[in-house]
């Protein structure tokens, strides 16, 4: 069985000490760095933009997983294509032709994902499931860190896992929002491949211990 991958979300990092934060995460065993890009329109918050992404790319060799919470993912993706990011997900509600963006990413060798809000049913992705490299299940409403986990996300993960198994799909299941060691075991048992965690890791005094607790729950 493939090990569960841990993707710390840098949204909760200390940006005044970004270099040391990333170095600590690498030493602690992080598999992926998760980057939440917010525009203040699709979600009621702003995070960071392309100069910070370039800096993070310079500071780390880990794969970068960009989650676009923006109203114009096509614009962002056009610039991300040459930034050496490995994963990009966006919300299909923000773009009329999701399949076109998915294919654009895949043609550049970037893993293409779609994000599902707590209120977005899986059925809206049905025609796209064969083409997706991963699905990002939001277990909080997007826009802010340190929110409480929404338990109904477990059922969505189970359904995605069963659909994958039944139809021989190849997408990975990623979960973001309120992920802690207390719910990591249930998330993995439901079929989660990648756990994204922000405040749980960054509020810990020992990143290695926090990442290990998530992976081995």
TrEMBL record:
Taxonomy, superkingdom: Bacteria
A cellular component term, taken from the record's GO annotations: cytoplasm
EC number(s) stated in the UniProt entry for this protein: 5.1.3.1
Cofactors required: a divalent metal cation; Co(2+); Mn(2+); Fe(2+)
Annotated family: Belongs to the ribulose-phosphate 3-epimerase family.
HAMAP family: RPE
Annotated residues for binding of a divalent metal cation: 34, 36, 67, 176
Entry annotation: catalytic residues: 36 (proton acceptor), 176 (proton donor)
Keywords assigned by UniProt, alphabetized: Carbohydrate metabolism, Cobalt, Isomerase, Manganese, Metal-binding, Zinc
Protein name: Ribulose-phosphate 3-epimerase
Free-text function comment from the UniProt entry: Catalyzes the reversible epimerization of D-ribulose 5-phosphate to D-xylulose 5-phosphate.
Pfam families assigned to the protein according to its UniProt record, in alphabetical order: Ribul_P_3_epim (PF00834)
Reactions that this protein is recorded to catalyse: D-ribulose 5-phosphate = D-xylulose 5-phosphate
Gene Ontology annotations of biological process type: pentose catabolic process; pentose-phosphate shunt
Entry keyword annotation includes Zinc: yes
Keyword Magnesium belongs to the record: no
Gene encoding the protein: rpe
Top-level enzyme category: isomerase
CDD domains cross-referenced by the UniProt entry: RPE
Cofactor comment: Binds 1 divalent metal cation per subunit.
Binding site for substrate: 9, 67, 176-178, 198-199
């Amino acid at each position: 069985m493939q090990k569960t991958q841990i993707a710390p979300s840098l949204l909760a990092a200390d940006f005044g000490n970004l270099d040391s934060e990333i170095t600590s995460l690498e030493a602690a065993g992080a598999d992926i760095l998760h980057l939440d890009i917010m525009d203040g329109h699709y979600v009621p918050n702003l995070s960071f933009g392309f100069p910070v992404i370039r800096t993070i790319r310079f500071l780390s060799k880990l794969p970068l997983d960009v989650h676009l919470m923006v109203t114009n993912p096509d614009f962002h993706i056009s610039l991300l294509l040459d930034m050496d990011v490995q994963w990009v997900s966006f919300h299909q509600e923000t773009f009329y032709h999701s399949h076109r963006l998915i294919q654009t990413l895949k043609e550049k060798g970037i893993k293409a994902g779609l994000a599902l809000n707590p209120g977005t049913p899986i059925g809206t992705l049905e025609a796209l499931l064969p083409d997706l490299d991963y699905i990002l299940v939001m277990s909080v409403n997007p826009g802010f860190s340190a929110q409480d986990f929404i338990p109904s996300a477990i059922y969505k993960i189970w359904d995605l896992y069963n659909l994958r198994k039944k139809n021989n799909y190849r997408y990975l299941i990623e979960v973001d929002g309120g992920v802690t060691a207390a719910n990591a075991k249930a998330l993995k048992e439901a079929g989660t491949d990648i756990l994204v965690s922000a405040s749980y890791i960054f509020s810990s005094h020992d990143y290695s211990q926090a990442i290990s607790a998530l992976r081995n729950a």
